[in-house]
Amino acid sequence: MRQPDLAHAMESHLTDISRVIQLAVAPVFLLTAIATMINALNSRLGRIVDRRRVVLERLPTRTPEQSEESTREIRKLERRSRLVYYAIFCAVLSALLVCLVVAGAFLGALLGVDLARSVAALFIAAMLAMIAALGLFLREVYLAVRGGTHYRP
Predict the structure, then answer these.
(1) Where does the pLDDT of residue 136 fall: very low under 50, low under 70, confident under 90, or very high at 90 and above?
(2) b or e along 48-70 (b: 16 or more beta carbons within 10 Å of the residue's beta carbon)?
C-alpha cells in the first residue's frame, strides 16, 4: 500500500516541477530583453565616455570662449553618463530580481512551500526597477537630443 502513495507523491512532485519550468520560460524571455537593454545602455555609455575624452583632449587648444563651451559640454556629458549608469544599475537590479523570481518558484515547488507572495513581490520589484531604468534611459536620450552634443564632430 505504501508503494502507490510514494509513486503518486513523486508523480505529483514531478508535475509541480514541470509546471514551474513552464512558468519560468516567460521570465527567461524577460531576462533576454533586459540583457538587450543593458547592452544598449552600455553602448551609449561608451559613446559618452569617448566624446568626453575628445572634448578633454581639445580643451588645452581652445580659446577662452570655446573652453567655456567645452566645459558646459563636459558637464552635460557627465550628467548623461550618470543617468546611463543609474539606468544600467536599475536594469541589472531588475535582472537579479527576475532571477530570484525563478529561483523562488523552483524552491517553492521543490520544498513544497507556498512562496507565491514572495515571488509576486520580487516580480513587482523587478518591474519597478525596469520602469526606473527605462525612465532614466528616456531622460538621457532627451538630454542627448536637446543638448545637440551627439551631432558635433
Answers:
(1) very high
(2) beebbeebeeeeeeeeeeeeeeb
DSSP string, 24-90: HHHHHHHHHHHHHHHHHHHHHHHHHHHHHHHHHHHGGGS-HHHHHHHHHHHHHHHHHHHHHHHHHHH
Proportion of the chain in helix, strand, coil states, percent, rounded to 5: 95, 0, 5
What's the rounded mean pLDDT across residues 64-84? 93
Q: What nine digits make up the cell of 133? A: 531604468
The three cell numbers of residue 38 are: 543593458
H or E element, residue 133: helix 116-147
Q: Are 81 and 49 in contact (CB under 8 A)?
A: yes
Rounded Cα distance, 51 and 18, in Å = 50
Coil, strand or helix at 105:
helix
To the question of pTM greater than 0.70 for the whole model, the response is yes
What is the pLDDT of the chain when averaged over all its residues? 87
Q: Which pLDDT score, from 0 to 100, does residue 123 have?
A: 95
82: CB partners within 8 A, 6+ apart: none
Per-residue model confidence (pLDDT) at position 7: 59
Specify the 3-state DSSP secondary structure of 112: coil
